[in-house]
Every structure is written in C-alpha cells, then in structure tokens.
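Practice set, problem 2.
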Amino acid sequence: MRNWWAAAALALGIATPAAATWQQTSSRHFVVYSEDEPDKVTEFATRLERFDKAMRVMRGMEDPAFSPTQRVRVFVVKDIATLQKLLSDRDAAGVYMPRLSGPVAFVPRKTNDTGKLALTPQAVLLHEYAHHFMFSSWGDQPFPAWFVEGFAEFNATMVFEPERLLIGAPPLYRAYGLVDDDLLPMRDLLTMSPNDKRLDSMKTQVFYGRSWLLTHYMLLNNERRPQLAAYLKALEKGGDMKAASALLGDPRKLDRALNNYARLTLPMLGLKVETLPIGPVTTRALTPGEEAIMPIVLRSTRGVNAKTAPGVAVAARKIAADWPSDPAVQVALAEAEYDAGSFASADAAAARALAARPNLREALIYRGMAQAALAEKEHATDSARWKAVRQWFITANHLDGEDPWPLVAHYQALRSAGAPMSPNAEKGLDYAFALAPFDSGLAMQVAMMHLRKKDYAAAVPALRRVAYDPHGGGLGTLAGAVLTAIDAKDNATIEKISASLDGKKADEGEEAN
C-alpha cells in the first residue's frame, strides 16, 4: 500500500520523498503540515505563535476569539524545487492565499540560498503571515502598496533569540534596493504597486527594499510617526493617494532622508520571550490515510484549472479506492471531483466522509456545493430541491457561526436558484466579510451585493479592500474607479462599471515571494 505515494507524486509532478512522515501541528493561529521530525515542526509552529503574539504586543492589540477554521494552514514542502514545481513558478520562494475557506501558505523547508543575504523560508513565511495579520486586523483600511509590503518586510526579519525577539533587523536579501533611489525615486514608490508593469526584476527588488526602509523610518522615528498616522487617516477618509503622499513631505527630501537613515545603525525593538505567552502547541503524525492523500491535498489546495483538475481527480480516485471509509481521504476526493466538474461523484465522496464522521465541516459544504452545481446545471426550479441544497450550509453554520464559508455558500445558492434574496442571507454575506476581510474575492461579492441595491456607501469598505490590494490587478483598478465615482456622486458611471463587474471574480489574491 505504500506505493500510493510514489504513484500519486509521479502523476501530479511532485518530488517523491525518500522516507518521511507528515506531521500536523496545531496551535491557536496555525495548522502546520510538514515532513519533518515532530520536535522540529513543534518548534516551527511555536515560533509562528510567538511571532503573532509579538506583533500584537507591539501594537497593544487584543487577540479576539475567532473560528478555528480561519487558522492559517501552512504547508511546508521538502525544498524550493518542490515548491516551485507545485506552484508552477520558477521564481517563487513561498506563497500566501487569503481564502475564506481558510487562509493558506506554502513554504519550503529549505532554499538554495545560504549566508547572510539568504531569503530564508522563515522570512518568507513571516512576510506572508504579516500580510494576513494586516488584512485580518484592518480589513477595510486602505493601505498603499509600499506600506503593505513594507509592513510585511518589517516584520519578516524578526530575530528569535532564546530569551528575546528583536524587531526591525534589515532584510539583507533586499540589500541592493535599500539605498538605491535612482531606479525608483520616492515620487514613484509612493503610488506604485509591486506588480506594476513598469517594474522589472531589479526595480521590484528596489521596491521591496525601499518600502521596508520607509516603513522602518516612519514607524520607529518619533517625529515621522505622526506623519504616517495623518497620511493613513487621509487615505481612510477617501483622500487621493498623491494628495495624501504630500503629507509625508517633499519626495526628493524624503529620498535623501532615507539614504542618510540607511547609513546609520538602525534601531531595533526587543521583546522578552517571557512577556509573550502563547497557548498549547500540539503535534501528531498524520494517519496512513491522511498521508496517502497528501499529494492530492497539496495540489488541490494550491489550486487547479480546467486543464489540471481532471488529472488531479484521476489520481485522487486511485488513492481513495484504498480508503473508502477515511473521512480525510473522501473529503479530499470530494474537492478534487468538484474541481473537475464531476459533481455527482463529489457529492458521493462527501456523503462517505459524513458517514465516517458526521458533521464534518468540509463534507457538509461539498455536499451542498455539489448539489447546487448539479441543480444549476439542470436548470432546476424546484424550490424544495434548492431548500435541501441550502440546508447543508445551514447545518454547517449552526455548528460554527463564526465560519464564513457556509454563509457565503448559502448566499451563492440563493443567487444560483434565482430565488428572492433574503435579508438574512445578505446579512450573512456582510458578516462573512467581517470574519474574513483578507479575501478580496469575498470583498467583491459584498461590494456587488450593495451596488446592485444602489447602497453605495455600504459598498465602500469592500471596494477599498479590492482597490488597495497591491495584487488586485485589473479588478482592483475597476474597484478604484467605482470608489472615485461614488465620491463624485456620479451614479451613471457607478452603474456602468458595476454592470461590467457583475459576475466577475477577483483574482486569487495570492502573493508569491
């Protein structure tokens, strides 16, 4: 039976490990999956929890209760080559995907870089989690791209010592970009995003380096910190980015000030570990079934398309045949079948998962989603059939009222049925966005819901989430245009752009490093 891994890995293009056991480590904010020794995975997750705690303590923030479904799932794969093959990206060192079903990050256990200038897996993951922290904590706050990336870099270089954590160390892997304002002067940096078409690979490095330096300067300089606060407040009130940037002073003087600042011994903050208590961190080996299906989980979680989904489903069926009563295996099969458009098979797999583990969240939702897709495909108008579809999501919601996924699925099912939209479903979608403000696709759904009702003010927070996303692409540009039209009370333009947006989906919103 151990041949399943080699066969599945070969089918999916994932490198086959020599001999390793997958571990799952659970903590308050994270679920980590890694092929490594249990104590190493535990230590890794402990650092992540300490990192989250440090960011909260630095900012005097509470750690409110939230659904365990919204913990970040971190998949630590063997090495950089395995990661890049999985992501189909030869330049990536890690990726973060802000999904309402549960945010996800992929990082390698080791990279090819060594020495002080190395971009380590730890730095990659901390950068990605800092993004999640920002958008989870301040989801409707518009942040400029330089501060989004600068904030992530500022936190990514945290130094973990036995008795303290140090914040503010320079990202030496961005060294080239720290003191070079010729390629990217401040007047451009303040209004650009890292995926701007004008940026080549060299300028992108400068973008990240200078963004870190400017963030460090603004956060740790007592005279500059009020300027940053005023600048962000101006953006929050709907101010133009260029006008708000003027609050930071003459961009040429700011370039010179940053260059001088970079030549100093830069300040760092220190926090004692004893002041950063965290909750329990527990580790277990995956069951044989969970380990068997892991190649499918990796590929499905990464995301598939019309070309790749059928192959993943074929590989999933081969593995799942040996584990007909394993709920984890059958849920993974249900996802793979759903992605491949085999909705009846997805429903059957989810049913097997529920038979083995009643009230399993993913199985409930995939049963509902598969049945909704079948009903939509058959142009069903039977209200009783659609009510039965929605019941799966209602059941999931009753099990965990703070899980945004059932709320969104319920709203989508009503839309698909063409039924009158209930106020409760609309409130549910709004609440889902409050629970998962980091998901730009959900933000666009919420914005469109309010725009259809011509409740433009209610659409603004969600539109901001998309418009100010550094990786929002063309959809972000359109969302920004709607915001401008709302501010100008130009209803004709609002309706015209809204019509073009209706039905469009936001990009996956992922960021690769």
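Problem 2, part (b): a different protein.
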Amino acid sequence: MTRRIQTGIVVAAIGALLGCRSEETPKTPSRLSSLDRVFVVQTEGLDLPGTGLDRVYRPQFRGELDAAEPDAGEVVGFYAYLVASDVDHVQMRLVHEGTGAIVVLERAAVADPGRLQPQIDAAALHPAVRQRLQAGVGVFWPAPLDGAEAGDGTRFGVLLPAGLLPQARLDIFVDTGSGSGAPLFPANLRLTPGYFYMAVIGDSMMWGNGLLEEDKFTTLVARIITEETGLHVVRQVRAISGARIVPQPDDGTCTSDCDGEVPKAFTSITVQAQELESPETLDLVLMDGCINDVGVFSTLLSTDVDSNALADLTRDVCGTEMTGLLQLVRERAPNAVIVLTGYFQFVSVETDISQLEALALSAEVPEEDLDALRLGIASVIQNSAVFDAVARESLLHAVETVGDAGRDDPPIVFADPGFGPQNAVFAPDAFLWGLVSRSELEDAMDVPVPVFPEDPLLEYRIEACAEPDARPELLPCLYASVGHNNPKGARRYADVITQVLRDVGVLPPASPE
C-alpha cells in the first residue's frame, strides 16, 4: 500500500529560520551550506493504523530469516521514496523512543539485495544482507524502480530484524561529514510491529481531571502495554467530565476542539459507546460510570438524603443502568477486553472538614446549606461510605451478569481501586486533588475564596471555563479537579488495571522480584 507523507515544506521553512540565527550557528563543513536534508515523499509496504491520526507505521513485508530455524527471528521490509540533495550520502538509524538506544543501519554492500514482496523469502536475499540481518543489523540500499513503476524521489529499500521494531523511530538523514554522528534535520518514520486498539469512555475519573496527560492512568496503562508487548497503542478517548450513563435531554456531542476537562457538550457514556470508531477492532475498552447519575453535590454531599434512598438509587444506576451499558459496549466491541473501574469513599472520617467547607463554598452552596453541612457532616461521611460500598457491589454484579451471558467473548472485568479512608479527599494520605492557598488568584479573580485547586491545570481552566461555549458553571468548573485522582491516585488505578490485564492475559505475568 502506498502512503503519501507530508513533504516537509513547513520543516524546511523552520530550518531556514533557524539557519538565519547566525550568532548561534556553529561553523560547519562547506557541504552543509545548502542545509543538506532529506524528505520522505512516499512509502511502499507500510500501513497506518485503521483508526485515529497516529503517524506510526507497520511494515507489511515480512518473512522468516531462516525457515529451518524458527528461533532465527523475523525480518520486515519496506520502500521509502526520498528527496535529498545528495542521495549517495543518505544514512539511516533506528532510535528506541523509550531508552534512546541507537542502531545504525548499514548501506548494503551489494547493488541488488533482492526484490521486497509482501512475503519476504529470506533465502532469496543476497547472503551478505542475510548475514547482517541475522547479526541484528538493519540494511538499506537504493532500489531502482521497475520499468512499469513510477514514483517521486529515489526509492530505497529497507530491511530490519523484526525485534528492532518496538518503539522504533527511523531517522533518515544526509551525512554532513561533520563527524558529530548526530543527524541534522532528519526525516522520521515511527515504526511498530503492530497495533493495539484501546478506547476510553466514561466520566471525569476516566478523563483524569486536573492531571497532565502523562500522569493520567489511561496514559500509564497505554505506556505499559507498549513497553511489555511492543505494540503501538492507538487510543480514542471519549470520556468527559460530568458524563452520565443515562442520556439527558440537553446532552450534545462535541465535534471540534473538544476537551474532557471543560466540556462544550455533555455527552452521556451511552452515546460515547455508540460513537466509538471501528469498535470491532478494539482490543481494550476502559470505562466507568454512575457517580454523576447519583449526583455528587446534589446527593453525596447533601445532608437531606436518606442513606437507604441513596443505596436504592446507587443500585439502580450502578447496577441496572450499568448492566445495560455493558451490554451495549459488549455488542459494539465484541473482540475487546472490557475493564470497568470503580469508585471510592469520597469523604471519610479522616477528611479535614474545614477543607470540605471551603469546597462547598467554592461550589456556591448557599450559606444556610453550608450551615447544614457543618451540622450534618456525619451524614455526609455515612452517605459517602454507603455509595462506596453499594457502588462496588452493584458494578461487580453488572460485570458478572453481562460476563456470564457472553462466556465465549473476551472477558469483562472489574477493577477496584481499593482506596482507604486515609486516601479520601483532604485526608492525610489523599489520593485525590485538594486545595491550596492562592491569595494572588483570590485578588485577581475578585472572589471571596482563599483556597484554590492544587492541580497544574488550574490556570488553563481559568481561561477555558470563562469561554462562552463552556457548559459547566464558572466556579464549579474551576474547582473541577478537587476530589479526583492526583498522580498517586492515578498510579493506584493504573496498577490495579495492569494487574487485571495480567490476569486475563493481555499483559504477560509480572516478573518475580
């Protein structure tokens, strides 16, 4: 399959700008005066993922290095069409994006190592090339086009031991003769032995309110899958803050410039599941849901809610409604392992109550309700514990109900984060974002609240929450991180999910200590 790749006009312009900064430009060989560089304008034998926008390529051409020796390993290959000022000085190297380790590819010592086909016959390759591949070294060579073919640029063939592919970036560059060994303005192709398709649906816990992308537990899980399987994880994340299982009349769907931290439209988790792209290709669905159907400020933090009524409501949405949602996800993603994550006790006996009062004030709770909160904090703690216990029981029952109905399908499993009272909001070993004093923000925003969320995305939310198309109310939007996973909590979720994936065989068993 032929794939067109951006020809690098923007990169060339940036390079030209960099070249104009004469005071920072070291002296280089005269051959660099033209800013020698290389561009990949076309490829042959590389696949892109079936969904998403990731520019990570899987070689199509494959074969065994030695058909008589299964342990010899596999070889992969492809063609790249290059535009370069000096094709005779083109060099290539593989960089492991995890460790930074470098493997320099060798230019084949023979003019024609052999025609690459979808099924590579290693025995037909030139012996010198086969020897280098067996030694774990990739090779490349100018590969003239056949008479019936046409293409832009100069075609180069590339052969690699398949074991080099995981997390590999192929740098293609012109050797400047500078002796530094570091390529200047290389063209890049990110390579992978295969793809792992993962979807994320749910509410703000699954989105990761307040967390940098690299700290979210869905990102941590994807990283572990890549590190341990070698596959590139292709993610589609549809979880958003405020999402409920049950669709609401005022729900919508964001179609552009979407952000789960500050939604422009509240999309139910049911609709998120319905909108998954190519769900039949999914290998894993991470999901949660039901706490927004129960209600946090309206129910869990309310002193007027009877514990028995709360338990009944929780069984209804975390049990009955979640069962229906799991059935929908199973029908839409028949080949995926489904991991449903649980919740925790939001407020516990170890919660610092003064911080809880500040949170209620930031959510614009009326003063009379705040007085009721102070008087009824024991009820709030009890209701939080009731929700924690009943939600866990109900979600597990939903998983068992749907899982038993489809025993031949990939498993549906429950991942309980297992937070304790000491991990609740404003507790001594909190796994959840809390509040800190920010007097400069109090003055700048002219609000009578001396404490603000401690997460690193507050400044972003100050701008995003004020946008006219932001759906949440301003102050609750600003404080949307409080009570959600901080990096320690996200790490706990990731550890629990990782263990579940080991238990069902998605990941290999953990190595003994």
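Answer key, part (b): Confidence is low (pLDDT under 50) at residues 1-34. Residues 377-405 form the longest helix (29 residues).
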